[in-house]
Amino acid sequence: TFPMKLWLLVNSPCVHSVRWDARGEGLFIDQRLFEQELLGAGPSAAGEEELFKTKNFGSIVRQLNLYGFHKLAESPAGSAVGSTPMPTTASGDSGYGDGPLHHFWNPHFRYDRPDLLLKIKRLTKANKEKLDAGLEVTSR
Fold first, then answer.
1. Domains of the chain
2. In sequence order, what are the beta bridge partners of 29?
3. Which residues of the chain have pLDDT under 70?
4. Which residues form a coiled coil (predicted)?
5. Tell me: the pLDDT tens digits for 62-79?
6. Is residue 10 helix, strand or coil?
């Protein structure tokens, strides 16, 4: 599923475009680096099977929204970017490129709680109606 792919990416030492925020409760996506690294939009793209069935970053943002991720405004300096939910090193090296940096949050996407991934459901019309009615969404 999309949330599981995202979980694997943010925890992979080989992926540099997706990182946990300082508290491990949200993720940063470096758009330009993500496009090169994972969408095959640049020279550094690996020749492996496509992870996402798109080369368009906007489609990834749409998927994030469909799964209940919310884009956060520019984060304060306290939310330093790191590969693990800890402040960056004293040198300030965050390993990021110069692309637009997007910060997304979902209450069930946390560094220390992989078990919560099961609670992330795709927001279909039927699921939205259930949520609006106060019912629990149990299937995708």
1. 2-75+98-133 (1.10.10.10)
2. 18, 102
3. 41-50, 74-98, 138-140
4. none
5. 999 999 999 998 644 444
6. helix
The answer to pTM > 0.90 is no
Backbone angles phi, psi at 39, to 5 degrees: -105, 0
Letter string b/e over residues 35-74, b meaning 16 or more CB atoms within 10 A of that residue's CB: bbbbbbeeeeeeeeeeebeeeebeebbebbeebbbeeeee
Amino acid sitting at position 84: T
Token pair 């993720």 in the structure block, residue: 27
What pLDDT score does 15 carry?
A: 94
- State residue 93's pLDDT score: 44
The alpha carbon of 28 is separated from its chain's Cα centroid by a whole number of angstroms, namely 7
CA pair distance 58, 34, nearest whole angstrom: 12
Q: Which two tokens stand for residue 125?
A: 């019309």
